[in-house]
Amino acid sequence: MSKLRFHPLEPLRFPLINRFYKSYYPAGKAKKDEVIWVGEDNSSIICCVRFKQFDNYQLLTGMLVHPEQRGMGLTKQLLTGCYQQLIETPCYCFAFAHLETLYQGANFIALPESELPEPLLSRLRRYRQSGKKLVAMRYQP
């Protein structure tokens, strides 16, 4: 694999990211009001992450690494590549419990629910009611 480039997705390429999600993470779907970062080589998108914007914070969501490229450290590379996005405003995420250590390795810390902004707390509770085992986390540079 050639060296990856990490950058925000250009608006014209928006349909490509939804094809990527449809292929490897059908529950994920990018929205035009999100900031989307990608890691790509010369031929295709290899990984991506979306940031849903709120007034004073953002929610990292929909991180996806191509299945054939998993376990190679690309998640950490992607998050390092979008560092400016992560520090722009406070950044939260809801990590699947089995991925908590992965996010900890990328400078996210687990939070008690009481430290989440109300809109995120409501969302987290809704996701958990649907059976998802999630850990609330915040980026800590």
Automatic annotation (TrEMBL):
Listed InterPro entries: Acyl_CoA_acyltransferase, GNAT_dom
Pfam family, one: Acetyltransf_7
MF-aspect GO terms: acyltransferase activity, transferring groups other than amino-acyl groups
Domain of life: Bacteria
The keyword Signal is annotated on this UniProt entry: no
Keywords assigned by UniProt, alphabetized: Transferase
Gene3D superfamilies membership: 3.40.630.30
Sequence ranges assigned to domain N-acetyltransferase in this UniProt record: 1-141
This protein's record includes keyword Coiled coil: no
Stretch forming the signal peptide: none
Protein name as catalogued: GNAT family N-acetyltransferase
Native organism: Photobacterium proteolyticum
Lineage, uppermost ranks: Bacteria, Pseudomonadati, Pseudomonadota, Gammaproteobacteria, Vibrionales
